[in-house]
Amino acid sequence: MEIIIGSEEAIGERGADLFSALLTARPDAVLGLATGSSPLRIYDALAARVRAGEVSFAQARAFTLDEYVGLPAGHPCSYRRVIEDDFTSHVDFAPGAVQGPDGTAADLAAACAAYEAAIAAAGGIDLQILGIGTDGHIGFNEPGSSLGSRTRVKTLTAQTRRDNARFFGDDVDAVPRHCLTQGIGTILSARQIVLVATGQAKAEAVAQMAEGPVSALWPATALQHHPRVTVLLDEAAASRL
Ligand code: GLP
């Protein structure tokens, strides 16, 4: 695990460098995208590079990490919509190149299996970007998640629902109780991972991830087993290391 500490701007550029290097070497790379505030600087830096003609996503494909269950398509908080608003509509992906788990499916288990099959058919994920929850979750793999898990339905913890209520007009009751998420095993199958964390609220989770014993109680500790992880932190998120 390589840990890099810098300003939010430096983190954004450093993360964008990883994507640019991959896309230069392999324009048809398969990317793993995350929602949340953590990757936004990287996404903004990448959009600027696309506008400058320095990098292109035209041949790339992407899979998102997770999705709420039951939000109608087009709901402003559905991760399908959020990733479009925050990133994919600002770069040059081809139509249909970005997929996410289907939280509106009648058969959620079948949707999860289909999602795993789609990732496998694409050849697996070359570079996965991750944030981290204050409780150490990655994707929506909450504490207690099996470290070998694949895409499946999960129940959100009260803590995560409180953390995410800010996106739902501060109404915790509006936050869905269930989600679909790539499993920890799915995430670990990516060939390269970059995790971004900023702010004091992430400091404990970051310290556990990097220095704690590998345990399902802190799901991000599973990343210690991955051979190619870059962790981008600001000073506050790094303050308990
Ligand atoms: C959310 C998402 C995660 C995200 C995390 C942190 O619940 N499911 O994918 O990484 O929580 O979010 P943020 O970056 O906004 O702090």
Automatic annotation (TrEMBL):
Record InterPro entries: Glc/Gal-6P_isomerase (IPR006148), Glucosamine6P_isomerase (IPR004547), Glucosamine6P_isomerase_CS (IPR018321), NagB/RpiA_transferase-like (IPR037171)
Principal EC category: hydrolase
Name by which UniProt lists this protein: Glucosamine-6-phosphate deaminase
Annotated ranges, domain Glucosamine/galactosamine-6-phosphate isomerase: 12-226
EC number: 3.5.99.6
Pathway assigned to this chain's UniProt record: Amino-sugar metabolism; N-acetylneuraminate degradation; D-fructose 6-phosphate from N-acetylneuraminate: step 5/5
Active site, per annotation: D66, D135, H137, E142
Any one GO molecular function term: glucosamine-6-phosphate deaminase activity
Gene label: nagB
Natural source organism: Microbacterium saccharophilum
Domain of life, per lineage: Bacteria
PROSITE patterns reported in the protein's UniProt record: GLC_GALNAC_ISOMERASE (PS01161)
Family per similarity comment: Belongs to the glucosamine/galactosamine-6-phosphate isomerase family. NagB subfamily.
Site (described: Part of the allosteric site): S145, R152, K154, T155
Keywords assigned: Allosteric enzyme, Carbohydrate metabolism, Hydrolase
Functional summary from the UniProt entry: Catalyzes the reversible isomerization-deamination of glucosamine 6-phosphate (GlcN6P) to form fructose 6-phosphate (Fru6P) and ammonium ion.
Pfam families: Glucosamine_iso (PF01182)
Activity regulation information from UniProt: Allosterically activated by N-acetylglucosamine 6-phosphate (GlcNAc6P).
SUPFAM superfamilies: NagB/RpiA/CoA transferase-like (SSF100950)
A single GO BP: carbohydrate metabolic process
Catalysed reactions, semicolon-separated: alpha-D-glucosamine 6-phosphate + H2O = beta-D-fructose 6-phosphate + NH4(+)
Record GO cellular component, one term: cytoplasm
